[in-house]
């Protein structure tokens, strides 16, 4: 696939990037270089290769997945203009 100057102008317009007319050939060339690199990546055989989280093998820090109430109900409700029975109170909007 090759990007011409008109396509480069359309991509710039869709991306809301102002590109001067004299810079469009250079932009089209850059797009073609990027697409060429992507084609090279598509040629690599990655069957059987596991995805990596990092380039260095390391175990991620994990916390216990426990459900809590947060323990801050009073602090949170102190910011409310109106709180009743441990909940935010809001005006009725639907009859």
TrEMBL record:
Taxonomic superkingdom: Bacteria
Family: Belongs to the GatC family.
Keywords: ATP-binding, Ligase, Nucleotide-binding, Protein biosynthesis
Assigned EC number: 6.3.5.-
Pfam families: GatC (PF02686)
Gene: gatC
Subunit structure: Heterotrimer of A, B and C subunits.
Protein known as: Aspartyl/glutamyl-tRNA(Asn/Gln) amidotransferase subunit C
GO terms for MF: ATP binding; glutaminyl-tRNA synthase (glutamine-hydrolyzing) activity
Record's catalysed reaction(s): L-aspartyl-tRNA(Asn) + L-glutamine + ATP + H2O = L-asparaginyl-tRNA(Asn) + L-glutamate + ADP + phosphate + 2 H(+); L-glutamyl-tRNA(Gln) + L-glutamine + ATP + H2O = L-glutaminyl-tRNA(Gln) + L-glutamate + ADP + phosphate + H(+)
Function: Allows the formation of correctly charged Asn-tRNA(Asn) or Gln-tRNA(Gln) through the transamidation of misacylated Asp-tRNA(Asn) or Glu-tRNA(Gln) in organisms which lack either or both of asparaginyl-tRNA or glutaminyl-tRNA synthetases. The reaction takes place in the presence of glutamine and ATP through an activated phospho-Asp-tRNA(Asn) or phospho-Glu-tRNA(Gln).
Gene Ontology terms describing biological process: glutaminyl-tRNAGln biosynthesis via transamidation; regulation of translational fidelity; translation
